Automatic annotation (TrEMBL):
Protein name (record): 12381_t:CDS:1
Superkingdom of this protein's organism: Eukaryota
């Protein structure tokens, strides 16, 4: 059995991962948070880079 047979059998994920986060949800969370200026960019950038 070839060594690289595992890498060829990996299929792309069909489910969204990480879970889809909408801008509306981020804004809704920011309204409840006093650190909105910090939480929105950090969480959004972390989500987009994942």
């Amino acid at each position: 059995m070839p060594r690289n047979s595992r890498s060829t059998s990996i299929k792309p994920l069909t489910l969204p991962f990480p879970p889809v986060i909408t801008i509306e949800e981020l804004l809704a969370n920011a309204v409840k948070s006093k650190k909105a200026n910090v939480t929105i960019p950090n969480s959004f950038i972390a989500y987009r880079m994942a």
